[in-house]
Amino acid sequence: MSRSLPDRVAGLYYAHGLFCSSHPVAILSLAISIILICCYPLINLPMPGNTPKVVINTTVTNGSNRSESSLLYVQQVSLRIGVVPWAEDLALSDAFRAPLYEVFNLLEIIQNYQDTET
Predict the structure, then answer these.
(1) Average pLDDT, the chain
(2) Strand 68-70 versus strand 59-61 pairing type
(3) What pLDDT, in 10s, does the model give residues 57-107?
(4) DSSP-derived secondary structure for 27-62
(5) Which residues, at least 6 apart from 86, have a Cβ–Cβ distance to it below 8 Å?
(6) How far apart are CA 70 and CA 57, in angstroms?
(7) 76-108 exposure pattern, b = at least 16 Cβ within 10 A, e = fewer
(8) What is the Cα–Cα distance from 81 to 105, expressed in whole angstroms?
(9) Average pLDDT over residues 34-63
(10) Sorting pLDDT into bands at 50, 70 and 90, what band is 112?
(11) How many CB atoms are closer than 10 A to CB 20?
(12) Which pLDDT value is given to residue 53?
């Protein structure tokens, strides 16, 4: 009489577990090498924000004196913020609020900037 499907699946899992417990070094080596092979393409993947963006600068010629002026300026601002000194009476939420305040303050300064020549 043939075995039922659940019995065959149970036997397959039993044989697999027996093989893995009998050859632990080979199984661990195989698993680690598969993980490393799968992660290898991620080494050369550029992280977002680390590479500069290429911007094509198109200039417009002014009609009166034929001087060139740029249409677009791209700037990157890096802001490093920390809560120093850390007092015992500060809550963990203060560690988030203080840097975020500085970021929004810098964003407001950048958005409200007006060039005197324009």
Answers:
(1) 78
(2) antiparallel
(3) 555 555 555 555 556 666 777 777 777 777 788 787 777 787 788 888 888
(4) HHHHHHHHHHHHHGGGGGPPPTTTSPPP----EEE-
(5) 95
(6) 7
(7) eeeeeeeeeeeeeeeeeeeeeeeeeeeeeeeee
(8) 12
(9) 69
(10) confident
(11) 13
(12) 61
Whole-number pLDDT of residue 26: 95
Task: At 103, list the tokens.
Answer: 């970021």
Q: What are phi and psi of 12, to 5 degrees?
A: -65, -45
Peptide bond into 85 cis (omega under 30): yes
Q: What is the DSSP string of 82-114?
A: ---SPPTT--TTHHHHHHHHHHHHHHHHHHT--
Structure tokens at 99: 């840097």
Q: Evaluate if pTM is beyond 0.70.
A: no
